[in-house]
Amino acid sequence: MGSRLQLAQCTADQASLPQKEAPGIRSYLPGRVPVKGVYIHVPFCRHRCHYCDFYTIAGREEAFTAYVERVKDEIRASAAVVQGPLETIFIGGGTPTILPPGLLGQLLDAIRTTLPLGTNCEWTVEANPETVSEACAEALAQGGVNRVSLGAQSFNPDQLKVLERQHDPSSVGRSLSRLRQAGIRQLSLDLIFAIPGQTLEQWDADLSAALELEIDHISAYSLVYEQGTPLTRRRDRGDVTPVDEDMEAAMYEHTITRLAQAGMVQYEISNWANPEAQCRHNLLYWSNENWWAIGPGASGHVQGVRWKNLPRLAAYLEGAGLPGITMPEQLDEDGRIGEEFMMGLRLLEGMERERVESLLAGGSRAPSRRTAIEGHVATGHLVWEGGRLRLTSAGLMVADSIIMDLL
Fold first, then answer.
1. Which of 280, 308, 369, 387 has the greatest CB tally within 10 Å of its CB?
2. Which residues are within 8 A (CB) of 394 and not within 5 positions of it... i.e. 6 or more apart?
3. What DSSP character marks residue 242?
4. Alpha helices (H) along 97-194
5. Domains in the chain and their CATH numbers?
6. Which pTM value belongs to this model?
7. What is the per-residue pLDDT across 62-86, written as a single tens digit (0 to 9) for each?
8. Distances (CA, A) of 3 to 192, 203, 207, 222
């Protein structure tokens, strides 16, 4: 179970990569490039949660102003490269809403006035409950943000303590109210299950608490013990005991059932939404579309090239224009085909038959991939339905092994 949901949680905008500096992205993408989305990384947090392996920095309030000025400079440099119109903007972290409302407004204004936004651009900002003041909510709405993803994780104080999350569960509802009052209606909650010590009944209570808040999108992830995090070190010392795989599977199955009963549609392994409320930015990732990276630690993908901006704040602040990058990658044909299967089968709608057949016509692993698909169809883990190949309910539970067979 853990590896299955680890694939779902490790989205390309936040994947950890080695920090060896490579030539700038313009060495790989020399001309103007068509882009559908932009991911902007704000690395600051008040406190680093014990399960987090994203590029984040606790404190450093004295660097906020310099960071915003530097990002504005990178936005101007990016505007000379990126060819829109942009369909999505996603500002993640870290905690973007840790920035004071004035600085946050400057950042949003630079995006709105500099980048080639489309007329119906989805504009998401990640937020932690304790940082959404009335002034923050107003800054977001006035800056053009129309969607907020709130990191609730759990409504149980004991489980938040295990995760080293520092917010009062009641602040989630207050934050949502402030965002709605400011005019932001598209609201999502992030939840985590399989927290050490958590029972199925406690996870059901978290789901119920989330649904009572009448949000239209939920991302529910199994807790992953990432290498090098404090939580993983605590596990290795025996200070915490992971939830066993059978319980983790039961929690995931219960999530599917409970959210379906509430009228939410599962559209990806770990994401559920009311009709018309799917996260369009994440759909870009899962569809292997082009998105641009801004900010230290941000990752991008354009025309088959993947890269990560160097995750070093000091070097970033000292630079100008487009930043240095780390470990750019351009997959060969087999790698590209495997990645398309990995991304495409994460979506519950699956992949069109024509696209599957096209992928199976290329690469040295074509025969083994076709055999793998036929085998998983035979076991009932994959199904051809309506001209598409998709995971079945049983297949969702073993999606990691299916994807590994096709990589």
1. 308
2. 380, 381
3. P
4. 101-114, 134-143, 157-163, 170-182
5. 2-330 (3.80.30.20), 333-406 (1.10.10)
6. 0.90
7. 889 999 999 999 999 999 999 989 9
8. 15, 20, 22, 9
